[in-house]
Amino acid sequence: MARSYIPLLIILGVTVLNAVGMAVLSHVLNPRRPTPEKSMPYESGMIPLGDTRTRFSIKFYMVAISFIVFDLETIFLVPWAVQMRELGWGPFVAVFLFVVVLAVGLYYEWKKGGLEWE
Q1: What is the pLDDT of residues 11-60, one digit of tens each?
Q2: d(CA 68, CA 46)
Q3: Which of 17, 55, 91, 116 could form a cystine bridge with 87, CB 3.0-4.6 A?
């Protein structure tokens, strides 16, 4: 039984060695010549205004996470909608509960002001 895992372990070892080797080689072979131009942040070719380490509001992250959640919802809903008639009532009820849970979460976020952009 253990013999069947030997090829997998060899591939895993080669992969790890390859990744570590590339990281070490890039660090060793990389010429380090810092200049003020290289240290400046690149912003579409424009001279940066202000500090590049400004903090974003937590609302920015809340809207981004909400977008990802509802974007993933469509990833799950579209394939189900295509095969809805063939699947029957069981998956319909499961998807209905999925949408209800997301709607409750959206309502909660809306009432808490998580969708307000200021």
Answers
A1: 999 999 999 999 999 989 987 777 887 777 666 666 667 776 777 777 77
A2: 30
A3: 91
Number of domains in the chain: 2
Cα-flanking dihedrals φ and ψ of residue 43, to 5°? -135, 75
Q: Are 112 and 106 in contact (CB under 8 A)?
A: no
62 with 105, same domain: the answer is yes
Instruction: Write the DSSP symbol of residue 46.
Output: B
- pTM for this model (two decimals): 0.49
Task: Report d(CA 96, CA 104) in Å as an integer.
Answer: 12
Domain with 35 in it: 2-39
Are 62 and 107 in the same domain?
A: yes
Q: Which tens digits make up the pLDDT trace of 71-107?
A: 888 888 888 889 888 988 998 999 999 999 989 988 9
| Tokens 């590049």, residue located | 52
Report the distance separating Cα 50 and Cα 48, nearest Å: 6
Residues 6+ apart with CB under 8 A from 38: none
